[in-house]
Amino acid sequence: LTQTLRKLEKNGLVKRTVYPVVPPQVEYSLTPLGDTLIEPLASLAQWSETHFVEIETARQVRESENS
What we know:
The protein is α+β, with helices and mostly antiparallel strands. The chain has helices spanning about 1-10, 30-35, 40-50, 50-65; strands at about 15-20, 25-30. The protein has a two-stranded antiparallel ribbon. A hairpin with a 5-residue loop joins strand 1 (about 15-20) and strand 2.
């Protein structure tokens, strides 16, 4: 998770805010660039829900072929 968040921060998709408190507190939020991903990712999530049965069937067929 840490590596993923650091990559997203490096690529300008999330902003990391560190608060000077004890215990340490860190907050991540989307940048304006990250906000542009909300709609395409929501569409991808909807697509995967629509095609879940087909995807799972294909996965099971592939796993049985490799067994």
